[in-house]
Amino acid sequence: FLMLFSMFAISVFANSNSQAMNIQIVPNPFTKSVAISSTSIHSGMNAVVTITDDKNNLIKTVFDGNIKTKFLQTSWDGTDFDNNKVKSGKYFVNITTNSRYLALKKVVILK
What we know:
The chain is α+β, with helices and mostly antiparallel strands and about 110 residues long. The chain has 1 helix and 7 strands, in the order H-E-E-E-E-E-E-E. The chain has one helix at about 1-20; strands spanning about 25, 35-40, 45-55, 60-65, 70-75, 90-95, 100-110. The chain has a 4-stranded antiparallel beta sheet. The chain has a 3-stranded antiparallel beta sheet with strand order 1-2-5. A hairpin with a 7-residue loop joins strand 1 and strand 2. The longest helix is centred in the first third of the chain and has 19 residues, at about 1-20.
């Protein structure tokens, strides 16, 4: 129960934080690829953007490095680390900057 409550609390905090951070995921839901961007994460910052499933299993890292453009821009093509298409369902975009966890936002794949 405590772990479930903790995950819920983190999810609620992160979702409200993602709005404050201006994180865009377009289109959502998607069928082929999704664009992930944030004007709150800008040039000179280090960022890691990962995709996890609803059981918090790491599916793919879509960005890991220093932001060279005006703001964070990346995408996910709906594949895992081995470039296999993942099944339809809900996944989560996790964003960390300078080693601090900042946001979690849901994304849905439709086939």
